[in-house]
């Protein structure tokens, strides 16, 4: 056997490189699903917004541990106005459902958190943007002013539809708190999320009044504030950073 020092050096360097590269990598699950709930507040053509509730379910594909593309389904109640205190005696309750596709980018994807405990702890901060549809189901709405109204009693009907579909654009800002399982994999997440939902159309509050009589220039919006729990599953994939 002929000893070849160049070959030995080459193999040694290659093994060191592979070992170093493997050490810097981590593994993560490619999918997650979760459930959550919280409160929402409406900002519509009705002057006074009010609080309602939001529940949701999500299914995400993890492009990386910190970039996700997923589907979110919501069911909840959005309400606003008050027949007694509203300027035009209007009020509504909307038992809505929605489905949207969302892309989210977390801080851990764009910063080097390995050498900073602070950045490591906040690596789960994220922004997200989505597109979807909301199914409005107005279960309670004032179409005619009451006879005791201070201004223009008995006026009506206020135009609008009780059932409609509108385009939905959700904007997300939130935080994921990661929890490892007994094998050292990130398996669970506690999620805190604030979401602004812009609806394009006049279905969220059930009122479609002419702008010549009522201020009606901006999209109807409801903001939701939720807490949820998520579980990672599926095939394992490698990532360039230590998780």
**What name does CATH use for the topology?**
Porin
Total count of domains:
1
Subunit arrangement of the protein? single chain
Distance between the termini: 45 Å
**How much helicity do the residues have?**
10-25%
How many strands, what sense, and barrel or not for the largest sheet? 8 strands, antiparallel, barrel
Task: Describe the protein in words.
The protein is mostly beta strands. It has a single domain, classed as Porin. 10% of the residues lie in helices and 55% in strands. It contains two helices and eight strands. It has helices spanning 5-24, 117-121, and strands at 26-43, 51-64, 67-81, 91-106, 125-141, 163-180, 186-200, 220-239. The chain has an eight-stranded antiparallel beta barrel with strand order 1-2-3-4-5-6-7-8. It is elongated.
Short overview:
This protein has 243 residues and is mainly beta. It is built from two helices and eight strands; from the N terminus they run αββββαββββ.
